[in-house]
Amino acid sequence: MQGLLDLYKSQQKVERGFHFLKSPEFLTSSFYLKKPERIEALLMVMTCCLMVYAGLEHKIRTQLKVKALHFPNQKKKPIQNPTARWVFFSFIGIYLLSITQEQQLVVVNLKERHEVILQALVSPYNFFYS
User: Fold this and answer.
1) pLDDT tens sequence for the chain (130 residues)
2) How many domains does the chain have?
3) Contact at 8 Å (CB) between 69 and 116?
4) Domain of 30?
5) CA 107 – CA 19 distance, rounded (Å)
6) What is the CA 106 to chain-centroid distance, rounded?
7) Phi/psi of residue 71, each to 5°?
8) Which residues contact 24 (CB under 8 A, 6 or more apart)?
9) What does each C-alpha distance from 20 to 8, 45, 70, 94 come to in angstroms?
10) Do 42 and 31 touch, CB atoms closer than 8 A?
11) What Rg, from alpha-carbon coordinates, does the chain have?
């Protein structure tokens, strides 16, 4: 009975994922497809995107708990279960600055909250942001 209840409750995670796919930020409403093959292909790509999104969210949450790290939510309260969407949103405004082609690139606007995610995920992400 408990297994059945757990399975039923896990549907919410799947529904939340498909809600993300339907959001205006994902731009799915701007596609107009007629052929069933193209619709199926788009659905496959969207499902793969959702799998990557869910996998990254799971990895972030797991590593935050394993390493006893906390990431601030929208109210600046430290949490260990941020959504991938919130993590992506928090990385807006980080840029790579290059004065000349010979100089090394510099990461601009990297804050402590970003360092937490980079510590949780480790490589290869640290390589890009260090």
Assistant:
1) 777 667 666 666 666 666 666 666 655 556 677 888 888 888 888 888 888 888 899 999 999 999 999 999 999 999 999 998 899 999 898 887 777 777 667 788 888 998 899 888 877 776 767 6
2) 1
3) yes
4) 2-129
5) 33
6) 23
7) -120, 135
8) none
9) 20, 14, 24, 23
10) yes
11) 18
What the block records as the tokens of 127 is 């390589």
SS (H, E, C) 55-94: HHHHHHHHHHHHCCCCEECCCCCEECCCCHHHHHHHCCCC
Q: CB of 70 within 8 A of CB of 116?
A: yes
- Of 101, 90, 94, 87, which Cα lies nearest the Cα of 130? 94
* Separation of CA 64 from chain center: 14
| CA atoms of 64 and 67, how far apart (whole Å) | 5
Using the structure block, give the residue that is written with the tokens 């970003």.
114
The three-point CA angle 5-7-10 to 5° equals 110
